[in-house]
């Protein structure tokens, strides 16, 4: 009997939840719903904008506002920090509209979204250095911005993408430096040297590349490779720290 009562309450709760959700977004014409969504976007009311846009997307998937609704959803999800939903919407749009006129904006937003995945509020708030965290989101962001620059060099988003690539390059270089230091502390001398040399080759104009010469020098010293030690010391002299 108790089970039936609980089951009945759960059913009523679910029905009430569904009806409440429907009440949030009234059944009004598409044009009016779209106007409300735009007003919410302009005022920064991301949750309300998302509710209206999602309703438009589900009720009128082939309507006059279909493509713009999808673009607006990407932006609203991103601003609301709904990163997985923004990413899914971006990939969906790219799949359905591979030659869209606003593809430069999509690539730019994909880069921003990947950067958001790499960002940690706690690390920034407490100034915690986590160079050793997984760099894949940063690498994906770098590649998205690079694709934007290559395909749309005259885009209005190119200048900002270029600045972000500079920051991401340093982020990726610092990860390689942290990895090389990890190998050094584990006395994996060859692995440390290889990572340093790869870092110097891929990101030669970074502070991390210069710092890696110190790790490389110590690894060569531990291996007793005098000639390599001398070459590395010369490189350090030619590349002073800032």
From TrEMBL:
It comes from Vibrio albus. Keywords: Cell outer membrane, Lipoprotein, Membrane, Palmitate, Signal. PROSITE patterns: PROKAR_LIPOPROTEIN. SUPFAM superfamilies: TPR-like. NCBIfam families: OM_YfiO. CDD domains: BamD. Residues 27-235 form the Outer membrane lipoprotein BamD-like domain. Its main location: membrane. It is found in: Cell outer membrane. GO terms for cellular component: Bam protein complex. It is a lipid-anchor. One of its GO terms (biological process) is protein insertion into membrane. The keyword Lipoprotein applies. This is Outer membrane protein assembly factor BamD. Belongs to the BamD family. Part of the Bam complex.
